[in-house]
Amino acid sequence: MTFRLGVDVGGTFTDILLINEDTGESFRGKTSSTPEDQSIGVLRGIEQVCRTAEIGTDQVRAVLHGTTVATNAILEKKGARVGLVTTRGFRQILQIARSFVPGGLAGWIIWPKPEPLAALEDTVEVTERIGSDGQIVLELDEDDVRTQLTKLRDQGIEALSISFINAYANDQHEQRVAEIAAEVLGDIPVSRSSAVLPELREYERTLTTVANAYVQGQVSRYVGNLERQLHGSGLDADLSILRSDGGLVSSAIAADSPVSLLLSGPAGGVTGAAWVAEQAGFENIMTFDMGGTSTDVALVEGLKPRVGRETNVGDLTVRATSLDVRTVGAGGGSIAHVPELTQALRVGPQSAGAAPGPASYGKGGTEPTVTDADVVLGYLPPQLAGGEISLDVDAAHAAVKSIADATGLPSVHAAAEGIYDIVNENIFGALKLVSTQQGFDPRDFALMAFGGAGPLHANALGILTGAWPVIIPPSPGVLAAYGDATTSMRDEAVQTLIRRFGELTDTELSEMLHGLADTARASLLEAGLSEGDLTVTYAVDLRYHGQGFEIPVTVEAADLDAGALDALRTAFDAEHERLFNFLLTNEHELVTARATVSGPRPEMAPTVLEEGGEDPSAAARRTHQVWVEGKEVEATIYDRHKLLAGNVVTGPAVVAEMDSTTLVLPGHAATVHPSGSLLIRPIDAPADSGSKD
């Protein structure tokens, strides 16, 4: 009997999901994160869940891990000191950047330009030049390279990035500089743009390569340390890391290309949400994963999460394939405050995190947080994480009272309700970014809420968005770990080839994509997967000739035999019109092609609950006072583990479980689906309302 583990490390909690590969039975674990060394919390959680399952750690075959190490290094500005080698004449490439300023007109006045991850004094240029066709225009001056690398060594750089103009078309010079760097600089991380992002646009390629070098040391050390500790604790298991696009890679590949991990944590939740939606019979969903520090939102259409070609972390935007996840600083630990200048209540983005945490955690925190407001309102019971965390109700009241005093609100309950409403509006704004801003009506989607804090705010977000039903998956607090444990190995290969459709044939496109697929499948075959288990998907970045941006379009494998260009024209025009509401008559142009190869998704036995009729009284624990819409009302607390298929929980109600708590507001009801999900709808809405296709 063997098991696999999904591990998700958040800012406040580390979530563990253990799955029996023979029966599909799962066991959950949740423990506090350890920001000083994430591996400590990971190992503690693994030992905890193995004890719960009554198995030895030696029975775990695979550890599948979503990590925020790379993300945190970027956000906290704690990466390596990076040296950059560029083509002569392009030393200020990161400083010039793109002429884009976020925000409206005021952005031009107050926007502070982010500091590049490689400082200008740590950027050197060397003599070399390659044309866009891959031909060598000017040979590499190796003496010049040695001189410049020696300068960087003397300045104390900790990692090196190499990005030459047009290296995507010919990587000969970059490879040679990397060889010389090994001689001059010794054993430091080296990132080549032709390996990290073999695509045109020198600024985006350079920025992405520098970001890779910036976090490579931390990720490599973390992965290596975790592997050693796993093996030291008796786990003879393979460690795989979740990429930003929702696929898994080996720990070695993850350490070499950490820029592909920047959204590793959020990707696990979206992947898991798609699986749960399928079990509940819904294909189109919006997701929001509300943890202790932030909330991540995404959109899933036809059970496929939307994928983007850019990854955004803080003020950094790199070119790396990732699920289209947007993040807002709104979590259970987000701190409420009243700025002296405006005297208006604000929530986040600052967070109490895991240490000291919300005041109600009793770990020394005193500032009022969203969790403290939930405690004051009665939405959270006094025990969390299956009893591992006991909440201090009096401390929560004392913390939130500071907001009531600062704003002049009449009561602590009114202040807590204000905090609750504001954080919901913040999440609503993020959901608009993945729905209405991209041409999707949220009312055409169901809304799935997960994370430790998500189900507490889900019903309110359903009212704001009009997205019904609101779906609360089984084990919502560990759904990201669920996604980690049920996803597949993945790799991709990319090639830039700028061709107008009139200069390209179906045969040439097919040969290029098949060649990329062969390159991408090599790493999976080396990892032990068999050829018959692999699936390939194709995509190309297209534009109208003359445009300065591209739109990714999927290529169906069946179209590669004939008619691929015609199918791409039609698909591109449809997507362009949806995004911008107009079409052009310009000729279509291919810019970049990619092939993605995936291994099989691990089998997971679906949950099937016993039928129990509409009456949920057998699961009722007790009654409890909650504060809703300016008044106190009596709610029933239910034990989710005792709810059966068909049970209907009418609000106001609180549904409690080990890893999360669900609030059902007055005028709404939660129906228990046979798959275990709670489906919340307005009482006057039909039972089959919501988008299923």
Quick overview of this protein structure:
This protein has 693 residues and is of the alpha+beta class.
| Strand count | 37
Number of helices: 17
Kindly report how far apart the N and C termini lie: 38 Å
How can the largest sheet be summarized? 9 strands, mixed
Question: Remind me, CATH topology of the largest domain?
Answer: Rossmann fold
Uncertain spans = none
Taken as a percent bin, the fraction of beta residues is 25-35%
Q: What form results from the Cα inertia axes? A: globular
Instruction: Write down the Rg.
Output: 26 Å
Q: How much helix, percentage-wise, in residues? A: 25-40%
The structural class is alpha+beta
CATH architecture of the largest domain: 3-Layer(aba) Sandwich
Total discrete domains: 6
User: What is the quaternary state of this protein?
Assistant: single chain
Rounded mean pLDDT is 89
CATH class of the largest domain: Alpha Beta
InterPro entries: ACX-like_C, ATPase_NBD, Hydant_A_N, Hydantoinase_A, Oxoprolinase-like
Organism: Ornithinimicrobium faecis
Domain Hydantoinase A/oxoprolinase: 205-490
Pfam family, one: Hydant_A_C
Secondary structure blueprint with pairings:
Blueprint: E1 3-9, E2 13-20, E3 26-32, H1 38-53, E4 60-66, H2 69-75, E5 82-87, H3 93-96, H4 107-110, E6 123-126, E7 129-130, E8 136-138, H5 142-154, E9 159-163, H6 172-184, E10 190-192, H7 193-196, H8 202-232, E11 238-242, E12 248-250, H9 251-256, H10 264-280, E13 285-290, E14 295-301, E15 304-305, E16 307-308, E17 311-313, E18 316-318, E19 322-323, E20 326-328, E21 334-337, E22 346-351, H11 370-376, E23 383-384, E24 389-390, H12 393-407, H13 412-434, E25 446-450, H14 454-465, E26 470-472, H15 479-485, E27 490-500, H16 506-526, E28 535-544, E29 551-555, H17 564-580, E30 588-598, E31 620-628, E32 631-639, E33 648-650, E34 653-656, E35 661-664, E36 668-672, E37 678-682
Parallel strand pairs: 1-4, 4-11, 5-6, 5-9, 9-10, 13-25, 25-26, 32-34
Antiparallel strand pairs: 1-2, 2-3, 7-8, 11-12, 13-14, 14-15, 14-20, 16-19, 17-18, 21-22, 23-24, 26-37, 27-30, 28-29, 28-30, 31-32, 33-36, 34-35, 36-37
